[in-house]
Structure formats: structure tokens, C-alpha cells
Amino acid sequence: MTKPIYLDYQATTPLDPRVLDAMMPFFTEKFGNPHSNTHSYGWEADAALDIAREQVTEVIGSQSDEIIFTSGATEANNLVIKGVMEVWGAKRPHLVTVVTEHKCVLEAVMACKHQGYDVTVLPVARDGLVNLDKVRDAITERTALVSIMAVNNEIGVIQPLAEIGRLAREKGALFHSDAAQAFGKIPLNVNALGLDFMSISGHKIYGPKGVGALYKRSGRARSLAPQMSGGGQEGGVRSGTQAPALVAGLGAAAALALTDMRQEARRLETLMTRLKLGLLDVAPDIIVNGSEQERWAGNLNVSFPGIDGDMLLASVRGLALSSGAACASAVSGPSYVLSALGRSESESKSALRIGIGRFTTDEEIDRAITVFQKAITSLRKGAA
Ligand SMILES: *Cc1c(COP(=O)(O)O)cnc(C)c1O
User: Fold this and answer.
1) How do residues 170-181 score in pLDDT, each as one tens digit?
2) Which residues have CB under 8 Å from 292's CB, separation 6+?
């Protein structure tokens, strides 16, 4: 049996073999604990962390001592949201976020709400973008943190971070962005965007699962309360022995992503346009979910009116994709992201998330178009 064509790059990305090469030595002979400072085993592991910190830094224009390694973007998001409120919540007991954020941001924000903090969850417009007037109105002198994602994991839209950063700074609020789907894919400069914090995930950029980073702008005003007690690694913010192999993988993945970021975005845009035209050929009434301008080229979320998404998924067996976020797939019912865009329940249930990336080929796109066209045509025939 041939393997299905992988079209679920927002759920996770395959590990780039070059990344694996960078990781291997730290699984074998370079096994030291980076915190061991009395011998060369420790030094070489620690040096690997330094190199990776530098590689991540290069992508976002930060300083290398502003990178905190974590187990992933989920941990980074929890650390910044809960950690900032623990330090600043007494003075500034208010948090602002957006309804289409990843579950881990929304759940961390809800945990703060249960602790008694005020929370504003902003809506989005029909194109999935947050309205800047609403952001301006929401941020006050009582706001400690504004947390708004860069690229949405279900619909691929890019939020206007630079403008949001300016609005946050005007009121003295800290600004965080979950950039798991954006880091290494679109240009992101923490200074140009006015970011105080940014969350990064290894496995969304052809790196390993189980590693990520939090960018934390230096300075006392950005202090965080650690969410784990221990040996004080990562500048005391994130205790626990770092995983040099995973961190080296994150660093190598970041360096590779930076090398051909613009070229790769253009290549994916061409492929995705071809795929979309192929869908329009047999289903001219499809609805693209989310802004068609402000979007990451590797994502296309489409509703097929009159077709049940689960049935469509079942009839495109040769393709590996999903109807929405991997983490929400276990929960039935319409996607909360699509509902936030004002999609009806049936539109939302007829949606598929198509994700392409580094290893997607022209030939795979052509095969995918054929599979989609056959499935749509036969489902429409069955319904008629
Ligand atoms: C994948 C993802 C996460 C979670 O990242 P992990 O590294 O798997 O914890 C968070 N936010 C967004 C937007 C994501 O796409």
C-alpha cells in the first residue's frame, strides 16, 4: 500500500533529515548534561544550546540571551501567560486575547480568569482578522498582557502584529504572540513588531516534537514567574535539564527555515493556487475560510457547501488531512475558529484544512487534485 499524500502540515511537519543529522551526536557520544560545568561532556552539550540559541535569534532579530528553551509552544504559551499574570496581576489584573487562539492559549487565559483576573476575548471579523479598533478599546492601563497569535493554525490568517504591538505599548501592556505557525515561515522581527514575548515550536518547522522556545525581551519589566521549580536552568525561568538533541534540532530547523524562507513561501503559494483552482473546477461554490490576502501560503481551509466534511474526508483516503486542528479533532462539533468567523454549523462541518510544506511536490498536488475532484463529483452525484 502506498502512503497517503501528507497534507496536514499545520498539525505537524516531517523531520528534515538534515535536522536529524544535527541531533544524532547528542543522542550518542555527546550525552553530557549542559548544566555540568566541571568537564567537557557538559561543556559540549552547553555549547550546543548556545549555537541553537544563536540560530533561533537569527530568525527573529533578538539577542541570544532572550531565548528560553521549553518543551514546545504549549509550554511557552502557558509560561508567559501564567508567569506574567503572577508577577503583574496585582497591579494590572487584565488580559486581552482573541477567540481564535490555539486551545493552549485560551485554556491558560481561562486558568487566569478562574484565579480572578479580568479577561477580554476579542472576536474576529468574517475574514478571521482581529479589528484594531476593538484591540485599542480593549487595552487599558489595567492590562498586563495582550496575547494574539501570528498565523492561525486552522485557517492560516496572519494577524496585524505590528499595529497590535504599537497599541499595547501605548498603554504600557506587554505583548505576546503565539508564533508556532509563523516562525521560520514569514518574516518576524521582534523589534519591528513590538513583541515582548513570542512562542515557538520545533515540530511545526521540520524539527523534532517536544521542544520549543519562548522569546522573552530582556529587562525587569518583562519578568516572569517560573511555572516549574528546580535547578534554575534557562536563566531561572524554566527549570529542568535541557534536551541538547532536541534543542540542536530546533536550532538546525530554524537555520534551514531562514535560508530559503521567501523562496519557499512563493513555491507553496504557486502549489496552493494550483490546488485551489483544481477544487474550483469541480466545486465553484467552495468557500475559502479566512482572509485570502493576509494568509500563510501553506494553508487552505475550505468549506464545501452541501457536502459533509467527514464523508469527504472518508472518500479522500489517499490524502492525509483533517477537518481542523489536530488537538480539537477528538471533540466533535463545528470548529470554534470557523464559528468565530460566522460560518454556519453546516458550512463549518463541510470544511477541510489543507496544509502543504517543504516536502510537498508538484506531482503530489496533481494527484491530490484528482483525488479531490473524484470524491467531490461522486458525493455531489450521490446527493443529487
Ligand atoms: C502546534 C501549535 C501549538 C502547540 O505547540 P506544541 O509545540 O505542540 O506544544 C500552539 N500554538 C499553535 C498556533 C500551534 O500551531
Assistant:
1) 999 999 999 999
2) none
Task: Let me know: does 176 contact 81? Beta carbons within 8 Å.
Answer: yes
Question: Which of ligand 1's atoms lies nearest the C-alpha of 72?
Answer: 7
Closest CA to 96 of 147, 169, 133: 147
pLDDT the model gives residue 330: 54
Identical fold, 5-12+261-383 and 17-255: no
Structure confidence by residue, pLDDT tens digits, 297-329: 999 999 999 998 889 999 998 999 998 776 555
* pLDDT-derived band at 2, boundaries 50, 70, 90: confident
Ligand 1: does its nearest atom lie under 6 Å from the Cβ of 100? no
CATH of 17-255 given 3.20.20.10, 3.40.640.10, 1.20.1440.20, 3.40.50.10090: 3.40.640.10
pLDDT over 90 for what percent of the chain? Answer: 92
Query: Is the beta carbon of 201 within 6 A of some atom in ligand 1?
Result: yes
Q: Which long-range contacts (CB under 8 A, 24 or more apart) does 342-349 make?
A: 342/126, 343/287, 343/289, 343/303, 346/305, 347/287, 347/303, 347/305, 348/303, 349/308, 349/309, 349/310, 349/323
pLDDT tens by residue, 324-350:
776 555 556 789 999 999 999 999 999
Pick the CATH number of 5-12+261-383 from 3.90.1150.10, 3.90.780.10, 1.10.760.10, 1.25.40.10: 3.90.1150.10
Q: Is the CB of 181 under 6 A from ligand 1?
A: yes
Least confident of 39-43, 102-106, 194-198, 221-225: 221-225
Q: Is 104 a catalytic residue?
A: no
- How many Å lie between the centroid of ligand 1 and the Cα of residue 380? 35
Closest residue by Cα to atom 2, ligand 1, is: 180
**CA–centroid distance, residue 74 to ligand 1 (Å):** 6
Spatial separation of the C-alpha atoms in residues 372 and 313, rounded to whole Å: 10
